[in-house]
Amino acid sequence: MELKVTPIGFVKNEFEREIPLNYHQHVSEVHILKEYADGLDGIEEFSHIIVIYWMNRSRWDASAMKIHPMANRDLPLVGVFATRSPIRPNPIGITTVRLLRREENVLFVRGLDAFNRTPVLDIKPYMLGYDLVRDMRFPVWVYMGMASLEEARRSDKKQTWQKEPEQWLEI
Description:
Strand 6 and strand 7 (106-110) form a beta hairpin. The chain starts with 8 loop residues before the first strand and ends in a 16-residue tail after the last helix. It has one helix at 140-155; strands at 9-12, 27-32, 48-54, 66-67, 78-79, 92-103, 106-110, 119-125.
């Protein structure tokens, strides 16, 4: 089966080579192509939106099915679908962001972890009843990974997963 996707727009920001650990604080622009601009009507009434994008600059080996989350070898080797890793059979990214404002066909958002010029595939509003999950559970390694991520943020380290794909894999 073959699928065809067409970008509805592109990301504009300063992230050319890496996504900083504090990307949550950065503002990005999502430029929607003119032919899709009418589809934005009413979006400005939402505080958050979900941006779905194609990780076209991903340099990862998509054949890997087991990885170390966050490229941290202290975390267990798990299946790629149990992670938010860019190592995936289809390089689709999804991020919930704060919608700051809309100016015609441009959405100004905070917290998008995508590179400059990344193709945007779709936008959805973050919706009560659809996206708010109660009674969540996570494996222990998620808490360990988030603790190491927070430590790296405080010390201004680079994200380990922005180095080399081999760090994710069991070698």
